[in-house]
Design a protein that fits this description.
With about 230 residues, the protein is mostly helical. It contains 6 helices and no strands. Among the domains are: about 110 residues, Up-down Bundle (Methane Monooxygenase Hydroxylase, Chain G, domain 1); about 30 residues. Helix 1 packs antiparallel against helix 2 and helix 1 packs parallel to helix 4. About 5% of the residues have low confidence. Keywords: Membrane, Transmembrane, Transmembrane helix.
């Protein structure tokens, strides 16, 4: 760790811690007879801390591990200073506004009671026409919203009725599909029986033809035998 960088960073930490305590002391004097001195002291303290921040900027950005502990102390001290400084700024603004109000009151020479009387004289009757108009508009919007809600309910009821009707008709459609399927099965069965009967008819026709031929042959043979027997 470079000795000059570490020493500079350590001194800056001590200065910032002292600046935090000095700011608290200066804030306590705000709004008192030493107000201007306290404000000047706060400006000088802030300048000193800013110089410490700028002077150690390069050291804080370095990656030297030996300075890590001092860096953490520096950041911690700066965080504390930023918090105390923010409180002091708010206190300065508050005391400045209070002092300004007191000066204005003294310059005007007006007491609190007189100021209330002046404010009361400035009060004017309020025109309620605009409020009535706005109320009528809001009522009209509410009425339209209720009408829309009623229409939505009617639409929902119609949807449920239509859905129920579709479900009822669906049962009839399913029954018709079953009947069609049964009819198709019966038609196929009848077609098979017709084909079977046609095949049987063809067989019977062939058998009839064969029997006829056999009978004719038998008759011819009988005739021939009878002719030869008569000779």
């Amino acid at each position: 760790m470079p000795l000059d960088e570490g020493e500079s960073l350590s001194r800056s930490v001590q200065q910032i811690k002292k600046a935090c305590q000095d700011i608290k002391n200066a804030v306590a004097d705000l709004g008192t007879g030493a107000d201007s001195i306290a404000r000047d002291k706060l400006r000088r303290i802030r300048t000193t801390v800013q110089q410490c921040r700028d002077k150690n900027k390069t050291v804080l950005e370095s990656s030297d591990a030996a300075l890590q502990s001092l860096k953490e102390q520096f950041h911690s001290a700066m965080s504390e200073f930023d918090r105390v400084n923010a409180d002091s700024i708010r206190k300065e603004r508050q005391t400045f506004r209070q002092a300004g109000a007191e000066v204005l009151a003294q310059e005007a020479g007006v007491s609190a009671g007189e100021q209330m009387q002046v404010n009361a004289q400035k009060i004017r009757p309020i025109d309620l026409t605009e409020f009535h108009t706005e109320e009528a508009i809001q009522r009209e919007k509410l009425r339209n919203a209720k009408d829309i809600e009623t229409d939505m309910r009617d639409l929902k009821t119609t949807y449920h009725e239509f859905n129920a009707l579709v479900n009822q008709q669906q049962s009839g459609v399913d029954m018709m599909e079953n009947h069609v399927a049964e009819s198709h099965s019966l038609i196929e069965r009848g077609h098979g029986q017709i084909q079977q009967a046609s095949r049987h008819q063809k067989k019977f026709r062939k058998i009839g033809c064969i029997i006829g031929v056999v009978v004719a042959l038998v008759v011819v043979v009988v005739i021939i035998i009878a002719v030869f027997a008569s000779k």
